[in-house]
Structures are given as structure tokens and as C-alpha cells.
Design a protein that fits this description.
- With about 525 residues, the chain is α/β, with parallel strands linked by helices.
- About 30% of the residues lie in helices and about 25% in strands.
- It has a nine-stranded mixed sheet with strand order 2-1-11-10-12-13-14-15-16, with helices on both faces.
Length: about 525
């Protein structure tokens, strides 16, 4: 019988279970044991220290999901550094902006990033390391490790991630939180809090955690590292594939996993035979975040996997959190949970709104942070009461459960009426022919904005005027007509990043080019 998982250091896990897999790569099957993860991350940590990269300095990581990724982040985490994981899909100019803005003095990249790296000015970066091949002007990762002894445990200090927003509403900004002068593994250090929460929730030492999303995003990265603080095996998918995902759950007897709603949709759209042939009975807890899950999609997932799907709402800024259990969600479908901090819904005039009314979601309390190099944006996140917001719209019901309606920037104003696109998106995503959908406001000479749906179909051959009318009618059967699209555009794909986040600003720009737009 499995025992409770124990929160401790990598070194202790390496001593207790040296041969236990800490990382299994999903497609390649490569394995990194706890002895290897501890040794290699400690060697890189010492190499950074010897090259003059000191506590509080910044390291950047530009790689695809690979076996070295978590070795590198653990090296930074245990040497008191800030580390910035950079989206591998960015263009050279976008990467350059982040490197310059965060002040990176070290960069670890992979051979897969050769074309991007070739377009960068790295003159201010003193230490450059190449994983999985050669990059011009970079030291080889394995050579760096071989030339360095492991950092002594007594010298290790907790570092912290400094991740950049996805830039859906403008230039990305780094979310910077204070470092604490705590020994590596100190249970009082803020970076340890998620692992402590998993431990308190009853995580077991036989846990196998599936991470299907890119590690350059905050939640996949932080949760993977938190599970490893408990000694779990983390199965990392190089990229998400719905069929492979089910295979990996069965093959590795996955117990815990984290997804975003678009991944649920892609798995549900698999042929029934493909979905039903896999043994998923080892799954104990599944969590999702990043965006609210459309109610029909989550009901289908609950019917398939059982009441094991938990949900949370938070942000990289860490100013507030809500969470909801499967049982609570079934009683409050569509909610993201009860806020764990004091939560307030605020109207356009700055006054707090009563239960049931939609406004901007604010939290009181939370942890300190700043938007790096942008004091104005940091200040704008707070109101005159000191409450802070991520810019989301929503409401609280009579039982105190939070429901999100949309981002403030993407609210549609049509004829003076506020329309929250997420409502129509949630309905349309339940139609069996819809693979993905975004609802946006487009220019309208009479109403200012008109509601339009942009739809990716399961089968592009289905596009027709009749289907457009059917989708509009389908939405109107669930929502008031003014909330529903007047028209539907069909596209091959929507601009989502691999984490599932929709870049709605890019979509809107196609319709608002040359005209005034409210999106900033």
C-alpha cells in the first residue's frame, strides 16, 4: 500500500530512491532518475556560481520540452537565481525583448532553437550553454556538467521563477516576486507552498504526474517541480497529442495530471474506439486551469473519467486563488470555485457590486509581486482600497462561488450593452462539429460592435451556410439572442499557444485593422 508522500529535498530523494524515475519523456521514453536529477542540477548550479552568476541574478531558458529542461530549472532553483522560461514559438525580436527586459546574464538553449538564437544579440550574456547539440558561441551542456563538482547542499538557496505574461493584450511583462534568503528545501519558502498543499491533500509516494503542456508556462513548470519535491515521477509530453496522452496514462499508470480545457476537447473528439480502449483506472486526481472549462465539456469529461476533475483559478501574479472539487462543481456548474482569499466584485464606478452582478474580480491580500520594469502597470493592478485584479470579469453567487465571464479587455459593447464572449463560447464548444471557437466583437456601423464567432471545425469539409445558421440557432437555444453571434467565420485553426491560451488580440486585429479598437 502506498505511503504518504514526504516533502523534502532532491538530495534526500536521491539518497532514498536513487533509481526511481524523476522524469520520463513521453514520446522518447528517456528517463532521468532522482540520482541523476539531483547530481546534474547540482553540477549546473555550481557551474553557474563559478562563472559569476550569483544569488538574485537572472538566467533565461529557451528550449522545447526535453529531458534536460527540469535539470536546468532545478539548477536555478537551488542556486538562488531568478529563472525565465521563454516560449519557444517566439520570434527573435520577441525573445530579445524578454532577454533584455529581464536582464539575463546566462542563457540555456537547445539545438532546436538554432534559427532563433542566430537572430539574437547575446553580447551582454556572459554564460551560454547549449543542450542537445551545438550552438555557435555556446558551451556544451554535458561538458559544463563534467567540468564542475556538485554544489554542496549547505550552499544551496531557494530561487524563484520570473515568468512573462503571454502578451495577449500587449507586450509581455515579467512577474517578479521577492526572493527569500531560505535554504534550499526550507518548507517556509514561498516556492515550496504548492508542494506543501499537495502533501496536505494526501499525495502518495507512488504518484505519477502527467505534464502534457509546455514547461515554459508557469503552471506546468511549477507543478512538475512541486511533485518532484514529493518524490513523484513526472511524465513530460514533448507536445500534446490526445491519443498519445491516453496511451501514456495507461502505460505509466498515471495517478495525477493537469490539463487545459482545449486538451479535454481534443481528447473528447477522438473516435470512441480510441478513447475506450485505454485503461485509465489509475487516475486519482485531475486538475485543470488556465481558462474556465465549458460546462458541456466538463460534464462529458466527468462522465468519462468520473468525479476526479478538480479546477482552480489563479494567475502567475499569485494575488488570489479559487478552487473547486468535482462534487462542488456538479452542484455549481461553471464555477471556478470559492475564493481562498477575500474576493470583491467591483463595478465601473469603483464601487463593490452585490452578489450575482458582473464586474471586475479583485482580491484583497495575496502575495507581493511587481511587473518588472513597469511600475505603472503594477500600480494599475490595484484600486484605492489596495485590492488587486488580473483583469478578469465575473460574479459571486449567493453561496460565494466565483464565476468568470471574460477578460475585461475582451468584453463586447454592442449598442451600449455589455456582452461577455465566454458565454457564447461555452455554448458553441458543446456542439459536436466544433473543435475550437472564439467569440469576438467586430466593427459595426450601427451598433459599434457586432458579435461574431470564429470556429474551427472537427472536419473542414462541413463548412456551409446551413451550418453557420445551425450554429447561430444552437447558441440562441441556450442564450439570449443579443449574446449570440450574428455570423460565423470558419477557419483552419485559432491562434492558441501550446498551453491552450487563446491570443484573442491577434484574432481581433484581423477585423479591426485600420479602425479604432478598444483592445490595448
Amino acid at each position: 500500500m502506498a505511503e504518504p508522500a514526504v516533502l523534502t529535498t532532491l538530495a534526500e530523494h536521491a539518497r532514498r530512491t536513487p533509481d526511481k524515475p524523476a522524469i520520463i519523456m513521453g514520446a522518447s521514453g528517456e528517463v532521468v532518475t532522482y540520482a541523476q536529477l539531483d547530481d546534474r542540477s547540482a553540477r549546473l548550479a555550481q557551474a553557474l556560481r563559478e562563472r559569476g552568476v550569483g544569488e538574485g541574478d537572472q538566467i533565461a531558458i529557451l528550449m522545447e520540452n526535453n529531458r534536460a529542461y527540469l535539470e536546468v530549472t532545478w539548477a536555478a532553483q537551488r542556486s538562488g537565481l531568478y529563472y525565465t522560461a521563454i516560449n519557444k514559438h517566439l520570434r527573435p525580436s520577441e525573445v530579445q525583448y524578454i532577454l533584455d527586459d529581464c536582464g539575463a546574464v546566462a542563457l540555456v538553449a537547445s539545438e532546436a532553437m538554432t534559427d532563433v538564437v542566430a537572430g539574437l544579440d547575446l553580447s551582454r550574456i556572459s554564460m551560454r550553454v547549449s543542450v542537445s547539440g551545438s550552438l555557435d558561441g555556446f558551451e556544451r551542456y554535458d561538458d559544463v556538467l563534467a567540468a564542475s563538482a556538485p554544489m554542496p547542499e549547505e550552499h544551496a538557496r531557494e530561487g524563484r521563477e520570473m515568468l512573462y505574461s503571454s502578451g495577449t493584450t500587449g507586450r509581455p511583462k515579467g512577474v517578479r516576486k521577492p526572493l527569500v534568503a531560505a535554504p534550499f528545501g526550507d518548507p517556509s519558502a514561498p516556492p515550496v507552498l504548492i508542494a506543501k498543499g499537495l502533501e496536505m491533500r494526501g499525495a502518495l509516494d507512488d504518484a505519477v504526474y502527467l505534464s502534457p503542456a509546455p514547461l515554459y508556462h508557469g503552471s506546468p513548470l511549477v507543478f512538475s517541480m512541486s511533485w518532484q519535491r514529493l518524490g513523484a515521477t513526472v511524465v513530460v509530453m514533448e507536445s500534446f497529442d490526445p491519443a498519445l496522452c491516453l496511451e501514456l496514462i495507461e502505460k505509466h499508470r498515471v495517478t495525477d495530471a493537469q490539463f487545459v480545457p482545449t486538451m479535454f476537447v481534443r481528447m473528447l473528439r477522438l473516435p470512441a474506439g480510441e478513447r475506450d480502449r485505454h485503461d485509465l483506472s489509475t487516475l486519482r486526481n485531475v486538475i485543470h486551469g488556465a481558462a474556465p472549462c465549458p460546462v458541456p465539456v466538463k460534464h462529458q469529461m466527468m462522465s468519462w473519467w468520473g468525479p476526479i476533475i478538480h479546477e482552480y483559478y489563479s494567475g502567475t501574479e499569485d494575488i488570489g486563488t479559487a478552487s473547486i472539487t468535482p462534487e462542488e462543481w456538479l452542484a455549481h456548474p461553471g464555477s471556478v470555485g470559492r475564493p481562498l482569499q477575500e474576493c470583491h466584485i467591483v463595478g465601473e464606478d469603483g464601487d463593490e457590486l452585490p452578489r450575482g452582478q458582473v464586474g471586475i474580480v479583485y482580491f484583497a491580500g495575496g502575495r507581493p509581486f511587481e511587473y518588472h520594469n513597469d511600475p505603472a502597470k503594477t500600480a494599475a493592478a490595484a484600486n484605492d482600497k489596495g485590492w488587486r485584479t488580473l483583469g478578469d470579469m465575473g460574479y459571486l453567487d449567493d453561496d460565494g462561488y466565483l464565476y468568470l465571464t471574460d477578460r475585461q479587455a475582451f468584453m463586447i459593447i454592442s449598442g451600449g450593452v455589455n456582452i461577455y464572449p465566454q458565454e457564447a463560447e461555452n455554448v458553441l464548444s458543446g456542439h459536436p462539429v466544433v473543435a475550437d471557437v472564439a467569440v469576438i466583437g467586430v466593427p459595426d456601423d450601427e451598433m459599434g460592435e457586432a458579435v461574431r464567432a470564429v470556429v474551427q471545425l472537427v472536419d473542414g469539409a462541413l463548412v456551409s451556410a446551413d451550418l453557420e445558421a445551425e450554429l447561430v440557432s444552437y447558441c440562441r437555444s441556450e442564450l439570449a439572442s443579443y449574446k449570440c453571434p450574428r455570423s460565423v467565420d470558419f477557419v483552419d485553426s485559432l491562434p492558441r499557444d501550446p498551453s491552450g491560451k487563446l491570443h484573442k488580440r491577434l484574432l481581433r486585429e484581423q477585423y479591426w485593422s485600420g479602425r479604432e479598437t478598444r483592445v490595448v
